[in-house]
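yo

u said u wanted the structure for the complex thing, so here. seqs first:
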Amino acid sequence: MDEKLRHILKEKLDSHESAVPGHLWEKVSTHAGGSSMGVLSQAKWFIAAAISAGIIGLAVWLAEEQKTEDTSIRTESTTQPNTSQPVEQPTEKPELGETKTSASASVITETIKASPHTVSANPNPETTVRLQPTSAAETMGQTTTTTETPAASSVITPAPEASTANAHSVGKDDSFSAVQINRFDLAFFFIPTNPKAEQYRWEFGDGEHSNEMSPQHTYNEPGVYDVRLQATAKDETTTINQTIECFPVSQLHVPTIFTPNGDGKNDLFDILSLSKFIEVKEFRVFDEKGNLVFSSENGEAWNGVTPNGIDAPEGNYLYQIQARDLRQQPVEKSGFIYLRR
Amino acid sequence: MTDRELANRCLTGDRSAHETLWKQHSGKMYTVCKRYFDRNEDAQDALQEGFIRVFKHLNQWQGEGPLGAWIRKVMINTSLNMIKGEARKGIHVQIDPSNELTENDFDAIGRLNEDDLLNLIRQMPVGYRTVFNLFALEGYSHLEIADMLSVSENTSKTQYHKAKGWLKSRLTQPVKNNALDG
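structre next:
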């Protein structure tokens, strides 16, 4: 009987194939890359720290974090005419132009530059969109007409939250822009500044590639990626290499209550379970008298037991958290959590 | 291209070879992983993790059998690692274990389409499902399964027996296609 069952099942299921979701390959391929990827991932933190030091007004970035959500960003960009104006400007812009975005429209745009000297030339990068003669926004305007799907063209509309990474070769056709679609995830929109080539090949630096002119790509891991664009026109291929930073905003979410009564539900004061893209350096909890009842250096959760081995009584506890985001910028948070038994 | 050639190209770090290998095997291996998990997310995690291991340890494939069989083994081991504890937990559902499958049951299984059969297996409690997959689908012996899952041989036999009882009880009901998200 067992043999018969085996036979039937084998016949039915041995050659059965399931449709594999496309995104799975992305992660697998990044790990299949061999040793070079390992070196890159080790170096990326250093590179990240070095580049980000000159660029990011992180405080502003984080202050805005809770206010906006992905969906609201998209809506804003389509309903507020002032944010989309840069796109409609004529493409023949003679000089470097800077469009100040207004704070009242809650527009915070971060500029990522591949070349350090461009970065330092910008005094106030976190509130500035820099439009170069052949920069992201204008090229977006051009590509809108050639993009096939309506969904894609709505993405092209520069979201107020978008980050742009412009190539260093100002004024030439051989550059491209990488636009982080929103600050909370790892999706980028890639736009060549020369939309007239006949063929495009993008290598996103994580093993994935695309032959679209303006592809959208989502990375699986934050990091620094070397992106390569090969554009072919009239049998001549131009290759552009550019490094982009893919660091979404950190999210540190702390619960307000926990119940360490051993019922398996919410027994731990765990600051990592709800948080994303963050590295906790110090996590301390104090009782109402100010005594330290728990501390950890890696965000380890507290089980409600004091250092003396006693169950901490019900009540409010003060916590202090010091953490780093993906760019190694400090993130701090303190507040109260209620312990109920 | 033979398995050996493809594997050699993968070992040199050839990305297109990696992708070819993935395209050749991921569909079937996704089915293999799905059998061990009721949730698609878990099966996808196992598939990803399994293929990462495949690429990492491809040099361990000596060519003694088809590459597909070796990959499948990696997928099964990866899945088992992920469900380790759960598969040993024992039984939550009361059923009559005296039921053996009859000719009628075999006919019923034969009439199920592949997806329905797969879904049915995935609905089994995890302890039954794991042993059932290893014994009936992968062809391992109870002794081997006992070793793989760190349980006694007897436990493996009991779980398999109960899995059959569970299957029998379900064969008399229509399969709920919407019980799983795919």
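The first helix of chain A runs from residue 2 to 13. The first strand of chain A starts at residue 97 and ends at 100.
cya
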